Amino acid sequence: MNTASTSPVGISAAPLTVHFLGNILTFRARFADTKENFTVIDVLTAPNAGPPPHTQTDQEAFLILEGRYEIIVGDEVKHCGPGDFVHVAPGTMHSFRNIAETTSRLLLINFPGDLHEEFFVAIGDPLPSGSTTFPDMLPPDVPKIVATAARFGIDIPVPANA
């Protein structure tokens, strides 16, 4: 007989929060908390912000909670609002951008979650848990972002003129 465990899995007391490219990422379920299966990140995105187009070795899914996003998956452009869900298969070029005039919010889910979690921890600027105010945006260090991403199975193609 299968029985589900009701014991806690060791979820961290205060969620880890980082800022990366106009996104405040609060880790709601970390890789270690899910018995090394997935990661769930609550993402606040500043207007017109989002990651550059990229591919990765893990699966990714977005559930829009507030605002409006443009999500590009392969050649398909999707305009998404609250309740919309988008899945991205491994190796598929994709990106998202907040197309609202105010902050938008989504849940980001990675399967497995280790690579994305480690990337965001390595590249993101730590913020106090529960932060909702965006820090000043500095120009991104593109070579550092691309090199760090590559260490975690994420490929960010850089245009020749960048």
Structure, described:
- The protein has 162 residues and is mostly beta strands.
- It is 12% helix and 37% strand.
- It has two helices and twelve strands; from the N terminus they run ββββββββββαβαβ.
- It has a seven-stranded antiparallel beta sheet, covered by helices on one side. A three-stranded antiparallel beta sheet has the order 7-6-9, with no helix packed on it. The protein has a two-stranded antiparallel sheet with strand order 4-12.
- The radius of gyration is 16 Å and the shape is globular.
- The protein starts with 16 loop residues before the first strand and ends in a 7-residue tail after the last strand.
* Elements, N to C (H/E): EEEEEEEEEEHEHE
Number of helices: 2
Main beta sheet: 7 strands, antiparallel
Counting helices, strands and paired strands, the structural category is mainly beta
Mean pLDDT: 89
Strands side by side in the biggest sheet: 8-5-10-3-2-1-11
Kindly provide the radius of gyration, computed on alpha-carbon positions and rounded to a whole number of angstroms.
16 Å
Bulk shape: globular
Q: What is the CA-CA span between the terminal residues? A: 58 Å
